[in-house]
Amino acid sequence: MKIAICIFLVCCFSFIKNSAQNPHQHKPDKNLLKIIDQNMMDAAAQYKVLMKNLPADQFPKTYSPTTGQYEFSNSDWWCSGFYPGTLLYLYQQLKDTVLYNEAVRVLDLLKKEQFNTSTHDLGFMMYCSFGLANDIHPSLVYKEILLNSARSLSTRFNPMAGCIKSWDVKPNEFLVIIDNMMNLELLFWATKASGDSSFYKIAVAHANTTMKNHFRADNSSYHVLNYNDSTGLVQQKRTAQGFADESAWARGQAWGLYGFTETYRETKDKRYLDQATKIAAFILSHPNLPADKIAYWDFNAPGIPDALRDASAAAIMASALIELGGYVNKKLSAQYFNTAATILTNLSASKYKTAPGSNGGFILQHGVGHLPNKTEVDVPLTYADYYFVEALIRYKNAFK
Ligand code: GLY
Q: What does 105-148 look like in DSSP terms, one character per residue?
């Protein structure tokens, strides 16, 4: 009986996760719907190019169009789940088994990360990949891998700090980044799949601590908080990937928007919905959000309007806004859907979407990974591709 209830809950969850909601029955942008169908085919063709160039035991990281050089990674890189995840999203749409078989091949390389306790990124790595694989073909093997991943992630929770540690840098620092909100989905899933509420409790504690400490009065978020893990007090608020400690790093705002939206989905606690709508208001009313809605890499980047855009932040925002649009009143919902449509239409144009056969097989160009570190600057990124494809599917599903 307990097993039957778990399966029922997991099925409900899968349905919600993969279906965007459009409760106010907005009319679709017909031009965008056509673009989406074409994008799916183009994206599949691109990933077949990427697939051919990928060393057998590696994961794609990025590609330089100027030198023609790829960067690859091992399975422990935080982005290792996005390549199989994108393949699986494309397979769901196109039923092309070449894509599915490649995803399954890569999952086999990735599965050892279920026991990795040295990173908070297990949600990205394992849920964007095995979570989706398990939605497509539920299996006890995938379930066990995901549960082990949730157990590994849970070891990083500190009850005094009330949150999950992001980075292990110095022994006297307990660093938590806004990005970490994205790893909670794995924990919510784990409670539903196992009946063990400890995962859910950790996720809610982490969301509450983040909501209390990570945000400024204008509802933008800091990137990195340094906690005292004995007292739970915040010792420092700073950035790593943003322009400045007090700036609003664009992808950080996108992670917060997406993370609180999914936390609302999983808990139905209105406080998380309010937080998500406040983040959306910060982003959408910001004077430095350009008319095409493709965010600069930091809302306070020097040199705006000539600063670099970040296609990854834009794609994450679009995907989150479509989901959030399903939970709010008609006026806000229309604003979120329209903004998402603008982002997706602009990312689909040649400025961002690469020409067939180019860009090493990546789908989008002009992502910014870590500008202060001078790494992955103005390049294709696997997570830009993943959230772009996810957002396109969510948009399309909202009008089915
Ligand atoms: N989680 C790392 C990033 O967004 O670059």
A: HHHHHHGGGGG--S-STHIIIIIIIIIHHHHHS--HHHHHHHHH
* Partners of 87 in the β-ladder: none
- DSSP-derived 3-state class of residue 221: strand
Side-chain-facing half-sphere of 65: CA atoms under 13 Å? 17
- CB neighbours of 205 closer than 8 A, spacing ≥ 6? 157, 159, 162, 163
Supply the pLDDT for residue 21.
83
8 A C-beta contact, residue 85 and residue 132:
yes
| pLDDT tens-digit map of 207-254 | 999 999 999 999 999 999 999 999 999 999 999 999 999 999 999 999
Single-letter amino acid, residue 259: G
- Mutational test site, ligand 1, from 176, 223, 241, 370, max ligand atoms within 8 Å of CB: 241
Whether the Cβ atoms of residue 397 and residue 20 lie closer than 8 Å to each other? yes
- Residue found under tokens 């925002």: 317
Burial (CB < 10 A; 0-12, 13-18, 19+), residue 181, is buried
**Minimal-distance CA residue to ligand 1 atom 5:** 369
Q: Is the pTM of this model over 0.70?
A: yes
Q: What domains can be seen in the chain, in order of their start residue?
A: 35-397 (1.50.10.10)
* Catalytic (active site) residue 179: yes
Taking only the tens place, the pLDDT of each residue in 58-83 is 999 999 989 999 999 999 999 999 99
Tell whether the torsion through CA atoms of 48, 49, 50 and 55 is positive or negative: positive
Cα–Cα distance, 40 to 10 (Å, whole number): 27
Active-site position among 29, 121, 229, 298: 121
Rg (alpha carbons) of the chain, rounded to whole number:
20
